[in-house]
Amino acid sequence: MKINFEKIGKKYFLSSEDGDYILLSKKEFSDFKKKESIIIKKGKRLIEEKQALAFCENYNSLKKYSFSPASLHIVVLTHKCNHACVYCRASKFGESNKPAMDEKTAEKTADFILSTPSKNITVEFQGGEAFLNWDILVKSVNFLKKKNIKAKKDLEISVVTNLSLADEKKLLFLEKEGVSVCTSLDGPAEIHDKNRLYFSGSSYALTEKWLKFLNERASKKSYAKDSLPSALMTTTRFSLNNHKEIIDCYEKLKLGGIFLRPLSPIGYAKNVWDKIGYEPRDFLKFYEKALDYILEKNLKGIKFIERNAAIKLNKILFSQDPNFLDLRSPCGAALGQLAYDCDGSIYTCDEGRMTASAGDDFFKVGNVFNSSYKEVLNSPAAKICSICSCLENQPSCFRCPFKQWCGVCPVHNYETSKSPWGNKGFSGWCEIEKGIFKILIERIENKKYLRVFRGWF
Protein backbone atom coordinates (compact mmCIF):
# COMPACT_ATOMS: atom_id res chain seq x y z
CA MET A 1 0.00 0.00 0.00
CA LYS A 2 1.37 3.39 -1.04
CA ILE A 3 1.98 5.79 1.84
CA ASN A 4 2.80 9.45 1.21
CA PHE A 5 4.55 11.66 3.73
CA GLU A 6 5.68 15.22 4.36
CA LYS A 7 7.40 17.03 7.21
CA ILE A 8 5.18 19.35 9.27
CA GLY A 9 7.15 21.29 11.85
CA LYS A 10 9.34 18.80 13.70
CA LYS A 11 7.18 15.79 12.87
CA TYR A 12 6.47 13.66 9.83
CA PHE A 13 2.93 13.36 8.53
CA LEU A 14 2.12 10.04 6.84
CA SER A 15 -1.16 9.14 5.14
CA SER A 16 -2.65 6.29 3.18
CA GLU A 17 -5.00 6.31 0.19
CA ASP A 18 -8.13 5.94 2.33
CA GLY A 19 -7.38 9.02 4.42
CA ASP A 20 -5.87 7.33 7.46
CA TYR A 21 -2.91 9.25 8.85
CA ILE A 22 -0.33 9.44 11.60
CA LEU A 23 2.25 11.95 12.88
CA LEU A 24 5.67 10.51 13.76
CA SER A 25 8.71 11.92 15.49
CA LYS A 26 12.01 11.94 13.60
CA LYS A 27 13.11 8.73 15.38
CA GLU A 28 9.79 6.98 14.78
CA PHE A 29 9.92 7.93 11.13
CA SER A 30 13.47 6.60 10.86
CA ASP A 31 12.39 3.32 12.48
CA PHE A 32 9.40 3.14 10.17
CA LYS A 33 11.60 3.43 7.09
CA LYS A 34 14.09 0.84 8.31
CA LYS A 35 11.59 -1.77 9.37
CA GLU A 36 9.05 -1.06 6.66
CA SER A 37 6.53 -2.08 9.29
CA ILE A 38 3.12 -0.86 10.27
CA ILE A 39 3.08 1.49 13.25
CA ILE A 40 0.03 1.62 15.47
CA LYS A 41 -0.13 4.77 17.57
CA LYS A 42 -2.86 6.72 19.37
CA GLY A 43 -5.55 4.50 17.93
CA LYS A 44 -4.55 5.33 14.37
CA ARG A 45 -3.65 2.66 11.84
CA LEU A 46 -1.82 2.49 8.56
CA ILE A 47 -2.93 -0.29 6.30
CA GLU A 48 -2.63 -3.96 7.23
CA GLU A 49 -3.94 -6.78 5.05
CA LYS A 50 -6.63 -7.79 7.50
CA GLN A 51 -7.96 -4.22 7.43
CA ALA A 52 -8.61 -4.24 3.68
CA LEU A 53 -12.37 -4.01 4.22
CA ALA A 54 -12.02 -0.92 6.42
CA PHE A 55 -9.74 0.60 3.80
CA CYS A 56 -12.34 0.01 1.07
CA GLU A 57 -15.11 1.49 3.21
CA ASN A 58 -13.11 4.65 3.97
CA TYR A 59 -11.97 5.04 0.36
CA ASN A 60 -15.50 4.58 -0.93
CA SER A 61 -16.79 7.14 1.56
CA LEU A 62 -14.22 9.72 0.45
CA LYS A 63 -15.16 9.11 -3.21
CA LYS A 64 -18.91 8.97 -2.58
CA TYR A 65 -19.86 11.71 -5.06
CA SER A 66 -17.00 11.44 -7.54
CA PHE A 67 -19.02 9.71 -10.22
CA SER A 68 -22.51 10.96 -9.39
CA PRO A 69 -24.36 13.09 -11.97
CA ALA A 70 -24.29 16.88 -11.77
CA SER A 71 -26.37 18.07 -8.83
CA LEU A 72 -25.47 21.79 -8.70
CA HIS A 73 -26.78 24.01 -11.49
CA ILE A 74 -25.77 27.70 -11.50
CA VAL A 75 -28.01 29.95 -13.58
CA VAL A 76 -26.93 33.49 -14.50
CA LEU A 77 -29.96 35.75 -14.96
CA THR A 78 -28.09 38.92 -16.00
CA HIS A 79 -24.57 40.28 -16.34
CA LYS A 80 -25.64 43.71 -15.13
CA CYS A 81 -24.98 44.88 -11.61
CA ASN A 82 -25.48 48.02 -9.53
CA HIS A 83 -22.16 47.47 -7.75
CA ALA A 84 -18.60 47.90 -9.00
CA CYS A 85 -16.79 45.37 -6.81
CA VAL A 86 -13.02 45.52 -7.08
CA TYR A 87 -12.69 41.80 -7.90
CA CYS A 88 -15.82 41.16 -9.97
CA ARG A 89 -16.46 40.55 -13.66
CA ALA A 90 -20.07 41.78 -13.70
CA SER A 91 -20.94 44.80 -15.83
CA LYS A 92 -22.01 48.06 -14.27
CA PHE A 93 -25.70 48.76 -14.71
CA GLY A 94 -26.35 49.99 -18.24
CA GLU A 95 -22.92 48.99 -19.55
CA SER A 96 -23.56 45.35 -20.51
CA ASN A 97 -24.29 44.62 -24.16
CA LYS A 98 -25.34 41.07 -23.34
CA PRO A 99 -29.12 40.71 -22.94
CA ALA A 100 -30.49 39.39 -19.68
CA MET A 101 -32.07 35.94 -19.67
CA ASP A 102 -35.51 35.91 -21.27
CA GLU A 103 -38.53 33.75 -20.50
CA LYS A 104 -37.93 31.26 -23.32
CA THR A 105 -34.33 30.65 -22.26
CA ALA A 106 -35.38 30.39 -18.61
CA GLU A 107 -37.89 27.67 -19.43
CA LYS A 108 -35.45 25.73 -21.61
CA THR A 109 -32.85 25.98 -18.84
CA ALA A 110 -35.34 24.55 -16.34
CA ASP A 111 -36.15 21.73 -18.78
CA PHE A 112 -32.48 20.88 -19.24
CA ILE A 113 -31.72 20.93 -15.51
CA LEU A 114 -34.61 18.61 -14.68
CA SER A 115 -33.62 16.27 -17.52
CA THR A 116 -30.29 15.49 -15.85
CA PRO A 117 -30.20 12.14 -14.01
CA SER A 118 -29.34 13.20 -10.46
CA LYS A 119 -32.13 12.70 -7.93
CA ASN A 120 -30.86 15.65 -5.88
CA ILE A 121 -30.87 18.98 -7.69
CA THR A 122 -29.74 22.37 -6.37
CA VAL A 123 -30.36 25.39 -8.58
CA GLU A 124 -28.49 28.58 -7.70
CA PHE A 125 -29.53 31.82 -9.39
CA GLN A 126 -27.01 34.63 -9.63
CA GLY A 127 -25.84 37.58 -11.72
CA GLY A 128 -24.51 40.24 -12.05
CA GLU A 129 -27.20 41.16 -9.60
CA ALA A 130 -29.98 38.57 -9.87
CA PHE A 131 -32.67 40.95 -8.58
CA LEU A 132 -32.15 43.16 -11.66
CA ASN A 133 -33.98 40.41 -13.56
CA TRP A 134 -36.54 39.76 -10.85
CA ASP A 135 -39.43 38.82 -13.16
CA ILE A 136 -37.40 36.03 -14.77
CA LEU A 137 -36.21 34.87 -11.35
CA VAL A 138 -39.84 34.50 -10.28
CA LYS A 139 -40.78 32.74 -13.52
CA SER A 140 -37.77 30.43 -13.26
CA VAL A 141 -38.74 29.38 -9.74
CA ASN A 142 -42.28 28.71 -10.96
CA PHE A 143 -41.02 26.78 -14.01
CA LEU A 144 -38.84 24.56 -11.85
CA LYS A 145 -41.52 23.84 -9.27
CA LYS A 146 -44.24 23.15 -11.83
CA LYS A 147 -42.06 20.91 -14.01
CA ASN A 148 -40.69 19.10 -10.96
CA ILE A 149 -44.14 17.70 -10.24
CA LYS A 150 -43.42 15.32 -13.11
CA ALA A 151 -39.63 15.11 -12.71
CA LYS A 152 -39.90 14.28 -8.98
CA LYS A 153 -36.44 15.57 -8.04
CA ASP A 154 -35.37 16.51 -4.53
CA LEU A 155 -35.17 20.17 -5.52
CA GLU A 156 -33.48 23.00 -3.64
CA ILE A 157 -33.34 26.56 -4.96
CA SER A 158 -31.16 29.46 -3.84
CA VAL A 159 -30.35 32.95 -5.05
CA VAL A 160 -27.14 34.94 -4.69
CA THR A 161 -27.83 38.66 -4.31
CA ASN A 162 -26.10 41.74 -2.93
CA LEU A 163 -29.47 42.61 -1.27
CA SER A 164 -29.32 46.26 -2.35
CA LEU A 165 -32.56 45.86 -4.36
CA ALA A 166 -34.29 43.78 -1.71
CA ASP A 167 -37.60 44.67 -0.15
CA GLU A 168 -39.97 42.79 2.13
CA LYS A 169 -42.21 41.68 -0.74
CA LYS A 170 -39.32 40.05 -2.62
CA LEU A 171 -37.85 38.37 0.44
CA LEU A 172 -41.23 37.10 1.63
CA PHE A 173 -41.82 35.59 -1.83
CA LEU A 174 -38.49 33.76 -1.58
CA GLU A 175 -39.35 32.58 1.93
CA LYS A 176 -42.76 31.34 0.79
CA GLU A 177 -41.20 29.40 -2.10
CA GLY A 178 -38.43 27.96 0.07
CA VAL A 179 -35.68 29.77 -1.84
CA SER A 180 -32.61 30.30 0.34
CA VAL A 181 -30.68 33.56 0.14
CA CYS A 182 -26.92 33.97 -0.04
CA THR A 183 -25.20 37.33 -0.09
CA SER A 184 -21.68 38.72 -0.09
CA LEU A 185 -20.24 40.12 3.11
CA ASP A 186 -16.56 40.97 3.18
CA GLY A 187 -16.53 42.24 6.75
CA PRO A 188 -17.47 45.50 8.52
CA ALA A 189 -18.40 48.61 6.55
CA GLU A 190 -14.86 49.96 6.15
CA ILE A 191 -13.76 46.73 4.43
CA HIS A 192 -16.98 45.70 2.71
CA ASP A 193 -17.62 49.11 1.16
CA LYS A 194 -14.01 49.36 0.00
CA ASN A 195 -14.30 46.01 -1.80
CA ARG A 196 -17.91 46.37 -2.93
CA LEU A 197 -18.55 49.84 -4.30
CA TYR A 198 -22.24 50.73 -4.50
CA PHE A 199 -23.47 53.59 -6.66
CA SER A 200 -26.20 54.67 -4.24
CA GLY A 201 -24.47 54.69 -0.87
CA SER A 202 -23.21 52.08 1.58
CA SER A 203 -23.50 48.50 0.38
CA TYR A 204 -22.78 47.31 3.90
CA ALA A 205 -25.70 49.21 5.42
CA LEU A 206 -28.21 47.51 3.11
CA THR A 207 -26.58 44.10 3.49
CA GLU A 208 -26.73 44.40 7.27
CA LYS A 209 -30.35 45.60 7.19
CA TRP A 210 -31.66 42.70 5.11
CA LEU A 211 -29.52 40.05 6.79
CA LYS A 212 -31.07 41.09 10.10
CA PHE A 213 -34.53 40.90 8.52
CA LEU A 214 -33.86 37.41 7.13
CA ASN A 215 -32.36 36.20 10.40
CA GLU A 216 -35.36 37.47 12.33
CA ARG A 217 -37.69 35.63 9.94
CA ALA A 218 -35.59 32.46 10.12
CA SER A 219 -35.53 32.51 13.93
CA LYS A 220 -39.31 32.17 13.92
CA LYS A 221 -39.20 29.08 11.71
CA SER A 222 -38.54 25.52 12.82
CA TYR A 223 -36.04 25.09 9.98
CA ALA A 224 -33.70 27.79 11.25
CA LYS A 225 -30.03 26.78 10.86
CA ASP A 226 -26.72 28.28 11.90
CA SER A 227 -26.28 29.83 8.44
CA LEU A 228 -29.73 30.77 7.19
CA PRO A 229 -29.35 33.15 5.43
CA SER A 230 -25.75 32.63 4.37
CA ALA A 231 -22.97 34.98 3.33
CA LEU A 232 -19.72 34.63 1.41
CA MET A 233 -16.55 36.54 2.20
CA THR A 234 -13.80 37.26 -0.33
CA THR A 235 -10.32 38.01 1.02
CA THR A 236 -8.60 40.93 -0.68
CA ARG A 237 -5.42 42.74 0.28
CA PHE A 238 -7.59 45.06 2.40
CA SER A 239 -8.71 42.09 4.53
CA LEU A 240 -5.33 40.72 5.57
CA ASN A 241 -4.82 42.81 8.71
CA ASN A 242 -8.45 42.71 9.83
CA HIS A 243 -9.24 39.09 10.67
CA LYS A 244 -10.74 39.93 14.07
CA GLU A 245 -12.98 42.67 12.70
CA ILE A 246 -14.26 40.43 9.89
CA ILE A 247 -15.04 37.51 12.19
CA ASP A 248 -16.67 39.77 14.80
CA CYS A 249 -18.86 41.22 12.04
CA TYR A 250 -20.12 37.76 11.07
CA GLU A 251 -20.71 36.84 14.69
CA LYS A 252 -22.60 40.08 15.34
CA LEU A 253 -24.93 39.34 12.43
CA LYS A 254 -25.58 35.81 13.81
CA LEU A 255 -24.29 34.03 10.73
CA GLY A 256 -22.94 31.13 12.78
CA GLY A 257 -19.68 30.86 10.88
CA ILE A 258 -17.59 32.11 8.01
CA PHE A 259 -15.91 30.65 4.93
CA LEU A 260 -12.47 32.26 4.74
CA ARG A 261 -12.13 32.31 0.97
CA PRO A 262 -8.99 33.35 -0.92
CA LEU A 263 -9.28 35.67 -3.89
CA SER A 264 -9.11 33.75 -7.15
CA PRO A 265 -7.13 35.18 -10.11
CA ILE A 266 -9.94 34.42 -12.56
CA GLY A 267 -11.69 36.86 -14.87
CA TYR A 268 -11.48 40.52 -13.88
CA ALA A 269 -9.56 39.95 -10.62
CA LYS A 270 -6.40 38.87 -12.43
CA ASN A 271 -6.29 42.24 -14.23
CA VAL A 272 -6.18 44.16 -10.94
CA TRP A 273 -4.12 41.66 -8.96
CA ASP A 274 -1.39 44.23 -8.32
CA LYS A 275 -3.94 46.35 -6.45
CA ILE A 276 -6.04 43.80 -4.54
CA GLY A 277 -4.11 40.51 -4.71
CA TYR A 278 -1.43 38.95 -2.51
CA GLU A 279 0.95 36.01 -2.28
CA PRO A 280 -0.35 32.62 -1.04
CA ARG A 281 1.84 32.92 2.07
CA ASP A 282 0.05 36.19 2.95
CA PHE A 283 -3.34 34.49 2.82
CA LEU A 284 -2.06 31.60 4.94
CA LYS A 285 -0.82 34.01 7.63
CA PHE A 286 -4.25 35.67 7.60
CA TYR A 287 -6.02 32.30 7.68
CA GLU A 288 -3.96 30.94 10.56
CA LYS A 289 -4.57 34.02 12.71
CA ALA A 290 -8.27 33.99 11.86
CA LEU A 291 -8.66 30.28 12.63
CA ASP A 292 -6.92 30.66 15.99
CA TYR A 293 -9.20 33.60 16.83
CA ILE A 294 -12.23 31.46 15.95
CA LEU A 295 -10.92 28.57 18.05
CA GLU A 296 -10.48 30.87 21.05
CA LYS A 297 -14.09 32.02 20.67
CA ASN A 298 -15.24 28.40 20.68
CA LEU A 299 -13.19 27.65 23.79
CA LYS A 300 -15.08 30.51 25.49
CA GLY A 301 -18.38 28.83 24.66
CA ILE A 302 -19.24 30.72 21.46
CA LYS A 303 -19.91 28.18 18.71
CA PHE A 304 -18.63 29.68 15.48
CA ILE A 305 -17.52 27.57 12.52
CA GLU A 306 -14.80 28.19 9.97
CA ARG A 307 -16.44 26.47 7.01
CA ASN A 308 -13.36 26.07 4.87
CA ALA A 309 -11.80 24.12 7.72
CA ALA A 310 -15.03 22.20 8.39
CA ILE A 311 -15.12 20.87 4.83
CA LYS A 312 -11.57 19.56 5.14
CA LEU A 313 -12.06 18.29 8.70
CA ASN A 314 -15.08 16.25 7.64
CA LYS A 315 -12.72 14.37 5.35
CA ILE A 316 -9.77 14.19 7.75
CA LEU A 317 -11.63 13.21 10.92
CA PHE A 318 -14.54 11.18 9.56
CA SER A 319 -13.53 10.11 6.03
CA GLN A 320 -16.73 11.75 4.79
CA ASP A 321 -17.12 13.54 1.47
CA PRO A 322 -19.19 16.73 1.96
CA ASN A 323 -19.45 17.05 -1.85
CA PHE A 324 -17.49 20.29 -1.99
CA LEU A 325 -16.84 20.41 -5.72
CA ASP A 326 -13.47 22.20 -5.59
CA LEU A 327 -11.93 19.41 -3.51
CA ARG A 328 -12.79 16.36 -5.57
CA SER A 329 -10.79 14.13 -7.87
CA PRO A 330 -11.86 14.52 -10.61
CA CYS A 331 -13.17 17.99 -9.76
CA GLY A 332 -16.84 18.91 -10.00
CA ALA A 333 -16.60 20.60 -13.41
CA ALA A 334 -19.35 19.10 -15.62
CA LEU A 335 -19.45 15.99 -13.42
CA GLY A 336 -20.78 17.69 -10.28
CA GLN A 337 -22.01 21.05 -11.55
CA LEU A 338 -22.98 22.96 -14.66
CA ALA A 339 -23.33 26.71 -15.23
CA TYR A 340 -25.83 28.37 -17.57
CA ASP A 341 -25.36 31.83 -19.05
CA CYS A 342 -28.12 34.29 -19.94
CA ASP A 343 -28.25 33.09 -23.57
CA GLY A 344 -28.53 29.41 -22.64
CA SER A 345 -24.85 28.56 -23.12
CA ILE A 346 -23.68 25.78 -20.78
CA TYR A 347 -20.25 25.72 -19.13
CA THR A 348 -18.36 23.18 -17.07
CA CYS A 349 -18.69 25.34 -13.95
CA ASP A 350 -19.19 28.91 -12.82
CA GLU A 351 -15.47 29.61 -13.07
CA GLY A 352 -15.54 28.39 -16.67
CA ARG A 353 -18.43 30.75 -17.36
CA MET A 354 -16.43 33.61 -15.85
CA THR A 355 -13.63 32.84 -18.28
CA ALA A 356 -16.19 33.07 -21.09
CA SER A 357 -17.27 36.48 -19.80
CA ALA A 358 -13.75 37.64 -20.63
CA GLY A 359 -14.20 36.37 -24.19
CA ASP A 360 -12.78 32.84 -23.96
CA ASP A 361 -15.20 29.93 -24.55
CA PHE A 362 -12.68 27.18 -23.75
CA PHE A 363 -14.95 25.71 -21.05
CA LYS A 364 -18.22 25.81 -23.00
CA VAL A 365 -19.91 22.40 -23.22
CA GLY A 366 -23.20 23.11 -25.01
CA ASN A 367 -26.45 25.07 -24.83
CA VAL A 368 -29.92 24.42 -23.48
CA PHE A 369 -31.63 24.64 -26.88
CA ASN A 370 -29.96 21.79 -28.74
CA SER A 371 -27.62 19.90 -26.38
CA SER A 372 -28.43 16.77 -24.41
CA TYR A 373 -26.87 15.91 -21.06
CA LYS A 374 -24.98 13.06 -22.75
CA GLU A 375 -23.57 15.47 -25.35
CA VAL A 376 -22.50 17.87 -22.60
CA LEU A 377 -20.58 15.12 -20.78
CA ASN A 378 -18.97 14.01 -24.04
CA SER A 379 -17.84 17.53 -24.95
CA PRO A 380 -14.08 18.17 -25.21
CA ALA A 381 -14.13 20.67 -22.32
CA ALA A 382 -15.85 18.21 -19.96
CA LYS A 383 -13.36 15.46 -20.82
CA ILE A 384 -10.37 17.78 -20.46
CA CYS A 385 -11.51 18.97 -17.02
CA SER A 386 -12.06 15.39 -15.86
CA ILE A 387 -8.63 14.21 -17.01
CA CYS A 388 -6.74 17.29 -15.79
CA SER A 389 -8.32 17.27 -12.34
CA CYS A 390 -7.73 13.59 -11.63
CA LEU A 391 -4.97 13.81 -9.04
CA GLU A 392 -3.47 10.49 -10.07
CA ASN A 393 -2.58 12.24 -13.35
CA GLN A 394 -0.79 15.10 -11.58
CA PRO A 395 2.78 14.05 -10.61
CA SER A 396 3.09 16.44 -7.66
CA CYS A 397 -0.38 15.56 -6.38
CA PHE A 398 0.17 11.82 -6.76
CA ARG A 399 2.93 11.96 -4.15
CA CYS A 400 1.17 14.40 -1.80
CA PRO A 401 -0.02 13.14 1.62
CA PHE A 402 -3.13 15.35 1.37
CA LYS A 403 -4.18 13.97 -2.03
CA GLN A 404 -7.12 11.92 -0.75
CA TRP A 405 -8.75 15.06 0.66
CA CYS A 406 -7.81 17.58 -2.02
CA GLY A 407 -8.63 18.65 -5.57
CA VAL A 408 -7.46 20.95 -8.34
CA CYS A 409 -9.28 23.49 -10.52
CA PRO A 410 -8.59 23.30 -14.28
CA VAL A 411 -9.98 26.84 -14.73
CA HIS A 412 -7.58 28.21 -12.12
CA ASN A 413 -4.76 26.37 -13.90
CA TYR A 414 -5.89 27.73 -17.27
CA GLU A 415 -6.08 31.32 -16.04
CA THR A 416 -2.72 31.23 -14.26
CA SER A 417 -0.63 29.04 -16.58
CA LYS A 418 -2.62 28.95 -19.86
CA SER A 419 -3.03 25.20 -19.51
CA PRO A 420 -5.82 23.27 -17.74
CA TRP A 421 -3.10 20.89 -16.49
CA GLY A 422 -1.29 23.68 -14.67
CA ASN A 423 2.04 23.38 -12.91
CA LYS A 424 1.58 22.29 -9.31
CA GLY A 425 5.19 23.15 -8.49
CA PHE A 426 4.35 26.84 -8.99
CA SER A 427 0.65 26.78 -8.14
CA GLY A 428 -0.83 29.30 -5.72
CA TRP A 429 -3.87 27.02 -5.44
CA CYS A 430 -1.68 24.14 -4.28
CA GLU A 431 0.29 26.30 -1.85
CA ILE A 432 -2.89 27.59 -0.19
CA GLU A 433 -4.71 24.25 0.02
CA LYS A 434 -1.65 22.38 1.28
CA GLY A 435 -0.96 25.19 3.74
CA ILE A 436 -4.47 24.97 5.21
CA PHE A 437 -4.20 21.20 5.58
CA LYS A 438 -0.93 21.64 7.50
CA ILE A 439 -2.47 24.26 9.78
CA LEU A 440 -5.38 21.92 10.55
CA ILE A 441 -3.19 18.87 11.17
CA GLU A 442 -1.07 20.85 13.65
CA ARG A 443 -4.19 21.91 15.55
CA ILE A 444 -5.78 18.47 15.53
CA GLU A 445 -2.82 17.36 17.66
CA ASN A 446 -4.08 19.73 20.39
CA LYS A 447 -6.84 17.90 22.29
CA LYS A 448 -8.76 21.06 23.19
CA TYR A 449 -8.85 22.17 19.55
CA LEU A 450 -9.81 18.66 18.43
CA ARG A 451 -12.82 18.81 20.76
CA VAL A 452 -13.85 22.10 19.15
CA PHE A 453 -13.48 20.67 15.65
CA ARG A 454 -15.58 17.61 16.51
CA GLY A 455 -18.23 19.88 18.01
CA TRP A 456 -18.77 21.54 14.64
CA PHE A 457 -20.43 18.40 13.27
Write up this protein.
The protein has 457 residues and is of the alpha/beta class. Among the domains are: 1-61, no CATH class; 72-278, Alpha-Beta Barrel (TIM Barrel). It is 42% helix and 16% strand. It has helices at residues 26-35, 52-62, 103-115, 134-151, 168-176, 189-195, 203-219, 243-252, 273-276, 280-299, 307-318, 350-357, 373-377, 380-388, 395-398, 410-417, 428-444, 447-455; strands spanning 3-8, 11-16, 21-24, 72-76, 80-81, 83-85, 91-92, 120-126, 154-160, 179-184, 196-198, 230-235, 257-258, 260-262, 305-306, 337-340, 345-347, 364-367. The strands form five sheets. It has a nine-stranded mixed β-sheet with strand order 14-12-10-9-8-4-16-17-18, sandwiched between helices. Strands 1-2-3 form a three-stranded antiparallel β-sheet. β9 (154-160), α5 (168-176) and β10 (179-184) form a beta-alpha-beta unit. α3 (103-115) runs parallel beside α4. The mean pLDDT is 91.
